[in-house]
Predict the structure.
Amino acid sequence: MVIFAISMIAQGWMINNAHQGYSKSPKVKHPELNDVKAGEPLLVVKFSDEDIQELQRQVLKQKIDELFEEPSTYEDDEEDDDDGDLLVRR
């Protein structure tokens, strides 16, 4: 139990000092940020709740329209031919 406690203290100390742990500025950058200079402004997009709700309505309407445009798998064309599918035995 004492060894476990000492291990936890050492790990916390390393993380706190960023030795083999988490750091605030990672050394490995995302590939898309290689050409971005420090202090260069980035594009920021902010959506309001109304914008998000309107977008959700549009996406839902588009999906519903697509579903109604697809042919139904429940329609059975063979039922409309009236060729006497019933078998009667006496």
User: Anything to note?
Assistant: The CA atoms of residues 68 and 75 lie 13 Å apart. Residues 37-71 form one domain.
